[in-house]
Design a protein that fits this description.
Layout (H helix, E strand, L loop, with lengths): L8 H7 L4 E7 L8 E6 L2 E7 L5 E5 L13 E2 L3 E3 L6 E3 L4 E3 L16 E2 L1 E4 L2 E6 L14 H4 L3 E10 L3 H8 L24 E5 L3 E6 L9 E6 L3 E7 L11 E11 L2 E11 L2 H32 L15 H17 L2 H4 L1
Antiparallel strand pairs: 1-11, 2-3, 3-4, 4-9, 5-6, 6-7, 7-8, 10-11, 12-18, 13-14, 14-15, 15-16, 16-17, 17-18
Helix pairs in contact: 1-5
Length: 340
Amino acid sequence: MTLSTRDTAEHIYANGLRNTWHPVVPSHFVKPGGLRRVTALGENWLLFRKSDGTLSMLADRCPHRGAPLSLGKHLGDRVACWYHGVEVDGTGKVTSVPGLPGCNLEGKTLVTALPVREVAGAILAYFGDEEHPEPVELTLPDPLADEDISAFLCYAEWNVPWRFAMENLLDPMHGAFLHHDSHTMYDGDTTAKFRIRETDRGYFFEKTDQRGVNFDWVELCRTGIDWVDLSIPYPPSAGPGGAFGIVGMACPVDAGRTGVFFWRYRKVQDWQRDTWRFLYRTLIEERHWAVLEQDRTMLEGLPEDADQQENLYQHDLGIVRLRRLLQAQAKQQSKADATA
């Protein structure tokens, strides 16, 4: 394994939790017959797709001399390293050493291969460690599994620590200020009280004195993958359909970069579905990207030690709870701290 319990809790907290699923990149980033190098949890990985669409994800490291497999040649069901031609299949097994047929490397599984799934236009991967190589059970976000819900995936990469991106989602009050001039979050009170409400999969962080007006609540869900759900009321001008919802996830690229995934969704059927999708593509999508740009600008402007020099108050209970969960999990996953 490239991810190890020998890493410190601080390293794990900075670069991403293990023994869980994470989104990696949108599915369209890897075309049939294509190779793509990606970075996730501070490590380099290779995504390659067979002509039939089957996807594999390998550590981007040839078992011979450590050269990047992503620089190699796609051979249909395997990759040939550019350096010396060593061939590795989608399971991480060495299938051929052209320079020395019969070499004892052949037939051995020497490259880490991650379990992958494709969901709603995104590639998800399970990142285990040497003690937990088998994937945990994955329950998909409800809005991405419901056939009556139409969703659009928005993906971007921000130069921020992944925990900053997650904390932003657990901070409903910022919508009333940072996004006040947007097309949906201009209404509602700029003062509020919040509470945490426990669920069997995480917790709600919600306003106690306002509902159905703005960014009034958010739910953190931990279902084999961490995701956030929230809902924003939409005016009639946005077309037919139920409440406008967002499923948000964050992929730790490394300690200073994050891939953010936002599925914007509505429950719509038949002709209303077509109307909603048309309105989204022609009018609403541009507005949504403007809101995301506000988040990116603010988060990238935060100093690296922003979470070390704060004065928090009641509105930040959801963030405090999130930090405690993530830090406790990072400590649990690190054997290095226990040894020290």
